[in-house]
């Protein structure tokens, strides 16, 4: 059997539903311009009978495909042949019980879990999707790959290009809009880095135009193969919970690739009879980049309302333009006002009986400090999930005995500036980095102790503070 009999690309629009070959290079539907899904003929591919079957593969982890946290679930994303897969060992991530953070959120003991996606090779969840997009790029023989990025996608793309030596990375970033940790990665890995005088939304629009004109393979999450890789984050969460379904999955929302991928993962597992219940999904926006919150919670926009949905989205974007409103948050990874996967995310919210919340930069940084104090840590955008969990707990939508999984999308060291500014003793520095974001306090700051270069003074300070 050939791949083209088992995997396809399909337009997500219920009124279009056009189908394309798996090795077609498209980003959006050729007929109507909507987003695409990768879909499978599960009768022809061989999905597992039970999720427990995956436990067997772990024993074969000297095989790189069984070692990869993405590809050991190959039978749930069978768009490529095993020999076509590109892997650098992504997806070795942890689901960690985190009672101290759970206590902060307002949950009972053993109820909060943190999924540390910052432990991926490039330090963020993006490697899950990049491995899948790279595999597709290899299938179709691409030589150059591009993305717009708030930093993590570009770091991941640059790393995959550097490690595999298969493609040249071309990245579009908003000038001054990405944190140094991420920019450092792209530069060090040798990516062609194009700094655009604009923000992420501008970079995203330009990369789509330019890559189409130049025939460059696009790896932003508008690429449906990316999302196939990101589905596996949920497979690993279930695996770590011994295939039990949590009550809530909570994820930061930026370009809305993760939330879309998670919804697809659960819809497929359910349709295949591999799970009997779908967890609820909470997508958390930063208050300064809250398009999804505004549309879903305030304006009541829903998946499946056809023209009405399109009109509501268009009119909101027009309003953003008229008011010249730009996204603004300390969580630079999710500083996005025009999320490309918006419509897929609405579908995921429908599948998962989802909710959307927005959290302030103050709440994000306080939650981030709590995550750090509990160990491993995360970057600001990731902590939006914990801040969101706390808010939902306060509202009573999450009860104290619910089992909650917060996705920590990126590593603490991705954005040291925000962390240092939170913990600083220098009020001017605090104000420079955080004050203009409406952050007023650092309730959980761990301030460095300044002492003279003198053993007695040092001993005194340690005795005083320890
Ligand atoms: N968290 C981190 C650390 C991210 O880097 C991103 C997105 C998100 C959350 C949002 O995820 O797009 O799936 O809703 N970063 C992209 C980038 C946009 O370019 O690196 P999403």
Please, could you describe this protein's structure?
The protein has 466 residues and is α/β, with parallel strands linked by helices. The chain has a domain at 94-122 and 226-418: Rossmann fold. It has 17 helices and 13 strands. The protein has helices at 53-58, 64-67, 99-105, 126-139, 152-164, 180-188, 200-214, 224-240, 257-271, 291-298, 307-322, 342-351, 361-373, 380-395, 416-423, 427-433, 455-465, and strands at 7-11, 19-21, 36-40, 94-97, 112-116, 144-149, 168-174, 192-196, 217-218, 248-252, 280-286, 355-359, 404-408. The strands form three sheets. Strands 4-5-13-10-11-12 form a six-stranded mixed β-sheet, sandwiched between helices. The chain starts with 6 loop residues before the first strand and ends with a helix. The model has no long low-confidence stretch (mean pLDDT 95). The site of ligand F0G has 22 residues, from helix 5, helix 9 and helix 14.
Short description:
By secondary structure, this protein is of the alpha/beta class. It has a domain at 94-122 and 226-418: Rossmann fold, CATH 3.40.50.1100.
N→C terminal distance: 67 Å
Mean pLDDT: 95
List ligands, each type once.
Answer: ligand F0G
Task: Indicate the overall shape.
Answer: globular
Give a count of the beta strands, DSSP E runs of length 2 or more: 13
Task: Please give the CATH class of the domain at 94-122 and 226-418.
Answer: Alpha Beta
Largest beta sheet: what is the strand line-up?
Answer: 4-5-13-10-11-12
Structural class: alpha/beta
The number of helical runs is 17
Radius of gyration (Å): 22 Å
Strand content: 5-15%
Q: Could you give a short account of the major beta sheet?
A: 6 strands, mixed
N-to-C SSE string, H for helix and E for strand: EEEHHEHEHEHEHEHEHEHEHHHEHHEHHH
The CATH architecture category of the domain at 94-122 and 226-418 equals 3-Layer(aba) Sandwich
| Stretches with pLDDT under 50, minimum 5 residues | none
């Amino acid at each position: 059997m050939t791949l083209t009999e088992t995997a396809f690309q399909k337009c997500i629009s219920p009124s279009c539903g056009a189908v394309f070959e798996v090795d077609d290079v498209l980003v959006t539907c050729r007929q109507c311009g909507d987003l695409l899904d990768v879909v499978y003929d599960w009768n022809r591919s061989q999905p597992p009978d039970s999720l427990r079957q995956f436990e067997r593969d772990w024993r074969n982890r000297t095989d790189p495909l069984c070692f990869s946290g993405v590809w050991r679930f190959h039978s749930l994303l069978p768009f490529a042949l095993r020999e076509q897969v590109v892997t650098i060992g992504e997806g070795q991530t942890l689901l960690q019980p985190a009672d101290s953070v759970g206590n902060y959120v307002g949950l009972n003991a053993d109820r909060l879990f943190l999924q540390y996606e910052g432990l991926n090779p490039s330090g963020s969840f993006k490697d899950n999707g990049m491995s899948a997009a790279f595999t597709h790029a290899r299938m179709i023989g691409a030589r150059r790959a591009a993305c717009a990025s708030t930093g993590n996608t570009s770091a991941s793309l640059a790393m995959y290009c550097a490690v595999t030596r298969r493609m040249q990375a071309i990245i579009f970033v908003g000038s001054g809009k990405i944190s140094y940790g991420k920019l450092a990665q792209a530069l060090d890995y040798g990516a062609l880095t194009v700094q655009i005088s604009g923000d992420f939304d501008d970079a995203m629009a330009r990369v789509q135009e330019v890559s189409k004109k130049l025939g460059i393979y696009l790896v932003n999450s508008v690429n449906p193969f990316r999302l196939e890789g990101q589905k596996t984050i949920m497979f690993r969460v279930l695996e770590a919970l011994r295939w039990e379904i949590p009550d809530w999955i909570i994820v930061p929302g930026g370009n809305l690739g993760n939330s879309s991928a998670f919804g697809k993962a659960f819809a497929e597992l359910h349709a295949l009879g591999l799970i009997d219940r779908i967890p609820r999904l909470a997508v958390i926006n930063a208050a300064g980049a809250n398009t999804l919150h505004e549309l879903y919670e305030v304006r009541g926009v829903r998946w499946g309302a056809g023209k009405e949905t399109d009109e509501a989205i268009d009119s909101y974007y027009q309003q953003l333009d008229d008011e010249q409103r730009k996204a603004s948050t300390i969580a630079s990874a999710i500083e996005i006002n025009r999320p490309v996967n918006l419509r897929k995310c609405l579908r995921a919210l429908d599948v998962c009986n989802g909710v959307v919340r927005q959290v302030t930069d103050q709440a994000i940084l306080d939650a981030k400090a709590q995550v750090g104090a509990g160990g491993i840590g995360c970057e600001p955008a990731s902590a939006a999930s914990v801040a969101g969990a706390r808010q939902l707990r306060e509202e009573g939508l999450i009860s104290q005995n619910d089992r909650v999984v917060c996705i920590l999308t990126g590593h603490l060291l991705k954005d040291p500036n925000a962390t240092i500014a939170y913990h600083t003793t220098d009020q001017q520095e605090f104000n420079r980095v955080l004050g203009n974001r409406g952050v007023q306090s650092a309730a959980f700051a761990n301030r460095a102790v300044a002492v003279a270069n003198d053993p007695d003074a040092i001993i005194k300070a340690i005795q005083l503070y320890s």
